Amino acid sequence: MIWLTWRQFRVQALTAAAALAAFAILLAVTGPHLVSLYAASTIPGCHGGSCGTAASDFLSRLAATSTYPIVYLLGIGLILARPRSSASSGAPR
Questions:
Q1: Residue (of 60, 59, 64, 72) closest to 30 by Cα position
Q2: Which of 30, 42, 39 has its CA nearest to residue 74?
Q3: Are 29 and 74 in contact (CB under 8 A)?
Q4: How many beta carbons lie within 10 A of that of residue 6, not counting itself?
Q5: What is the pTM for the complete model shown?
Q6: Which residues touch 79 (CB under 8 Å, ≥6 apart)?
Q7: How far is CA 4 from the centre of its chain?
Q8: pLDDT tens digits, 23-46
């Protein structure tokens, strides 16, 4: 039964593995540049209203230096995934 399942879905499994490998190669190539731009920006230390300005500045620098649209999307994901302090999130103390 396992052989039959593998036989039915092997094309999809190989396609998914190839896509994952291509994405991993893309991250390996563009990751260090993206991390250095993020570390040089003011996003890690921003609080409150200054975060919007810092994020747009980071994205404009990223768009100016990158030729790959996927890197721009990864930069947006990096901004959205940054940890937030409890004071700026409005959570009760």
A1: 72
A2: 30
A3: no
A4: 10
A5: 0.52
A6: 43, 55, 58, 59
A7: 37
A8: 888 888 888 888 888 888 877 777
